[in-house]
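Progress report, Aim 2. The chain analyzed during this reporting quarter is listed below.
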Amino acid sequence: MPALDFFYFFGSAYAYLSVQRIGRLAAEAGVHVNWRPINVRPLMARNNVALRNETLKVAYMWRDVARRAAHHGLPFKQAPIWPTDPTLLANRVGIVAGQGGWCEAYTVASFRAWFLDGQPLGTRESLAQILGPLGQDVDATIALAETPECAARYDAETEVALSHGVFGSPSFVVNGELFWGDDRLEEALLWAQGRHAVQNNLRV
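Predicted structure tokens for the chain:
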């Protein structure tokens, strides 16, 4: 089965759209998804991007996400709490979830809690509400997420993303080919299938 690496950040507005769509689309395309949380903040800093300081761009971002959610038939109530996950705990729990084989379920539940339930990411209270229904022990999971080993794994995943040229979230990598942004998800899946026009016609 062809595979796709899905690099994303808990706290990325556009990642919400991909998180809600990629499971179904990948299953229909016969493509396996590797869910890989990364720290997008240093990647953005490398390019001198400080989105939270760009008032007009942030306002556009939330309007654009609302439009795209409606276009794809996804729920959207209002702009969620943002920025969120200040200590990266929600992201590091994603690393724990990945090692445990429940990263997709945790990610989907987290983004729904953030966007639809109005919860901030990375607090113990929100993690309790997210992890409980997944059958995960809150204290044990947080303890694992706060270990140096987990932090090192998170940093390593971010370095892997950087090695592929990733600079934002969400990003998709297929055999070294990078696609950035939710609006490139379908193209990334076509590439994984070997059905993209460039692969079959231009070969650039």
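The domain at 3-202 is CATH 3.40.30.10 (Glutaredoxin). Residues 55-72 form the longest helix (18 residues). These observations will guide the mutagenesis work planned for the next reporting period.
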